[in-house]
Amino acid sequence: MVKSHVIEGAKLNTQITPLGNLSDRAKGVTLVLTAGIFWSFAGLAVRLIEFANEWQILFYRSTSLMAFLAVYFLLFKRGRIIATFRDCGWIGFIAGLSLGIAFCAWIHALTHTTVANALFLLSTSPFFAALLGWWILSERVSASLIWFIALASSGVGVMVAEGYQLGTLLGTIMGIIAAFGFGIFAVLLRKGRTTDLVPAVFWAGFCATIISTIVISLSSATFEITGRDFSLCALMGIFQVGLGLVIFTRGAKYLPAAEITLLSLTEIVLGPVWVWLAIGEVPGVLTIVGGFIVMSAITGQAYLTLRKTG
User: Fold this and answer.
1) Helix residue ranges, H only, the chain
2) Tens-digit pLDDT profile for residues 212-270
3) Burial class for 23, CB neighbours closer than 10 Å (0-12, 13-18, 19+)
4) What is the Cα gyration radius of the chain?
5) Which residues, 6+ apart, have CB-to-CB distance to 165 below 8 Å?
6) d(Cα 230, Cα 236) in Å, to the nearest integer?
7) Rounded to an integer, what distance in angstroms lies between the CA atom of residue 243 and that of residue 245?
8) Contact 59, 223 (CB under 8 A)
9) Most exposed: 38, 50, 175, 198, by fewest CB within 10 Å?
10) Using CA atoms, how far apart are residues 83 and 130, in angstroms rounded to an integer?
11) Cβ distance 201 to 93 under 8 Å?
């Protein structure tokens, strides 16, 4: 029995050993909140980059993501790598394509609108996930979940109120595409939850690599960046995006699509905290107030989810 348990843990199947004593819903909450924490370091990493532009960051982050997942598959899926990709099928590929497009749209939104606009638009992803989950998966969305999603979005609105601007149509469209793409990704993870959909993350990195390669090749930019910037991009690809998405993919097995996108908004709340602690960029009063509102919504939904397991 012990030997079998160790082997299963080494293979990283759905029974994640450190969370083995938790209910499925508790596992989902823990994993998705953890994924949001990993993602929240993006802002700090980008602040520390000296010269690389957005598309160079996307290219090297995406290639590092694919390299990280290649090692992951070699370590934990050796002998079954092709089968793992085949098993996730079209769901994994389309999920990865949606996430890859979301990566690129997000970068484009940041370059064609304010960061505040982009963050506010990204916070609408739970609404898209709720609608798509109801339509594609027939997942019932409770009144409390809708209320907490609205509360979280209002909190993000408070956070970015000072920096939000109108009239940036292209950036707004790209921000909506990013939120919609992430919503599709979350819903398809739920649809294919009986299979290992980590390959979808690889497809996302592949898609983003192809698009960023085309953009860089057609622009005046080059692929050459400094060693410091490359190291930061690699860390983002491996830990901030890569490990975070692997954890999120596993947490998505246990919770509705709308709920996992809501809980992952910890990314938006914690991002300014790391920047403040690391480089002394003090968040404004509205950022603190809005962050408190968002965390209240996330905490409330997490509490209701865990209470249902009791």
Assistant:
1) 2-10, 24-39, 42-48, 54-76, 81-112, 115-122, 125-132, 143-159, 169-191, 198-218, 227-235, 244-251, 257-263, 266-279, 285-307
2) 999 999 988 789 999 999 999 999 999 999 999 999 999 999 999 999 999 999 988 89
3) middle
4) 19
5) 113, 114, 116, 117
6) 10
7) 5
8) yes
9) 50
10) 31
11) no
Amino acid symbol at 87: D
- What CA–CA distance (Å, rounded) separates 50 from 114? 20
Please give the C-alpha separations between residue 221 and each of 2, 174, 197, 224, in angstroms, as whole numbers.
Answer: 55, 21, 34, 9
Q: How far, in Å, CA of 128 to CA of 118, rounded?
A: 16
pTM above 0.85, yes or no: yes
CB atoms within 10 A of CB 190: 26
- Please, which residues have CB within 8 angstroms of residue 256's CB and are 6 or more apart in sequence? 133, 139, 140, 141, 145, 190
The secondary structure of residue 284, as a DSSP letter, is P
